[in-house]
Amino acid sequence: MEYRDVLIVGAGIAGLRTLYSLRKAGFDAQVLEASDEIGGVWNHNRYPGARCDVESFDYSYSFSKELEQEWVWSERYPTQPEILRYLNHVADRFDLRRDITINARVEAADYNEESATWTLTLHDGRKASSRYLVLCLGQLSAPKMPNYPGQDRFKGETIVSAMWPRREIDFTGKRVGIIGTGSSGMQMTPVIAQIAERVTVFQRTANFSVPAANAPLTEEEDRAVKADYEARREMTRNSPTGLGFQPGKKKTLEVSDEEREEAFEKAYHRLGFGFALTYPDILLDKDANRVASDFLRRKMGERVEDPEVREKLMPVTHGFGTRRPTVDSGYFEAFNRDNVDLADIREHPIEAFTETGIRTSQKHYPLDFVIFATGFDALTGALLKPRIAGRGGVTLKEKWAAGPITNMGLGTAGFPNLLIVGGPGSPTVLSNVMVSTELQVDWMTELLSHLRDAGVREIEVTREAEAAWNRHVAERVNETLYMTAQSFYNGGEVEGKPKVFMPYSGGVRHYRRLLEQCAADDYVGFALRSTPLATQP
Ligand code: NA7
């Protein structure tokens, strides 16, 4: 493969956007994608009911006015097939495919200190090299599977939600077990329940959810947004989560019970995730969080007829929002159907898989299919899969053994000319991914253009900057309730993973200001060298 200015790993939302921007800025860039299709998580998560819980108009690129005007979304919340179609349209519309190599899994990346370049090794031994390496590997993209005794013995079919097969799967007349009740499990349950003979949901942790209030988008809504799309974009960019919601002004307990009830009701029925910002302290103050959590438990409970099932579905291990809540379409109502059961595996754990199903400490469930909707090795999982070796051959895995350390999520000391989109230390996973991604990619494009103009050959995060940023990430999270729960934000989802809070919880708006400040201060926190460190006299 020829030498490029920039190699980008991953052709999901971030990789496509990076290619578009760098090419436009005059760089010779190439994307390497492991799969035989572009789309990242939207290529892999093809399970029934898969949908984004950010609204379509906001879960779309803002870099092209023409694209914004041309593309017509069909529903308020876009489905996986529609997002995948959109990403493919973008790839064609902007002629991106000529610089995307599919079936190219990067297994190793080695930094050459003399030449200040990266050499990548692919799964089939092919090599590729470049000055800069940009990792666009996703935050929730390395699937995690349980390891129950006898799993291999099961004679039915096992499917991982995040590696959903491309072929048609017919659940008609089948008994389906779904393990996991995050967004994936909650989205697929009501859809599969309409087809299968029986669905059993194996729940370890009950989760908070707000109804999506999804609906087809009308031509009128489409016209109204497109008449002034920029205003909507400005609103999302200037909101803390990139979703366009501004937190309410008064605190939760400053208002009367009646006023709060009314505000919660309104937000609950209309805003999806925006419910969390009804009041500014819901994720900051224990008492405020308790009140919001109680409201949600009551509303979720009203959707379930059977009192015993209702009780089991109520989250008790954590407060609302301290783990990723979901935005669901008919999840709780699904348990009112005769063919849907709940197996509480916290109370009665799974003991083993058998040839014909799953045995818990209470009973045996005969099954034809088991679906693992068991989540991801979040934020660092995909980044640590390839062997990435920086200065002195030290690997990223070694460097991050006690938890990831970055400057603003964008890079890490000892790994020059390596940039990360959506890295740990960035706000991406706590925000509308589109907004954070575009923000980071635009910033990186300016950075690389500046380096080119200034004749810089090597850029590297300084140790001081990354230490200061990690302290800042920790300070910000300590103002919140996020550490009161075990979650994929803080390594709680994988046994043995360092238990540190990884995303930046200071919000997208503030993060944007910090990025702008960094650029204005000549990229303070990054060492810029026109002669690589290794070759300096
Ligand atoms: P999540 O939100 O990480 O949910 C994973 C679910 O799987 C959660 O309910 C877990 O229970 C459960 N889980 C994980 N491992 C096991 C084992 N071993 N046994 C039983 N249950 C298990 O992943 P999703 O794919 O649903 O959603 C990920 C994100 O994608 C979502 O937030 C959106 O951003 C899109 P636990 O809570 O750990 O007890």
UniProtKB/TrEMBL annotation:
Coiled-coil parts of chain: none
InterPro entries: FAD-binding_Monooxygenases, FAD/NAD-bd_sf, Flavin_mOase, Flavin_mOase-like
One MF term in the entry's GO annotations: N,N-dimethylaniline monooxygenase activity
Swiss-Prot/TrEMBL keywords: FAD, Flavoprotein, Monooxygenase, NADP, Oxidoreductase
Cofactor: FAD
UniProt xrefs under SUPFAM superfamilies: FAD/NAD(P)-binding domain
The keyword Membrane is annotated on this UniProt entry: no
Signal peptide: none
The family this protein is said to belong to: Belongs to the FAD-binding monooxygenase family.
Protein name in UniProt: Trimethylamine monooxygenase
Originating species: Maritimibacter harenae
Lineage, highest ranks first: Bacteria, Pseudomonadati, Pseudomonadota, Alphaproteobacteria, Rhodobacterales
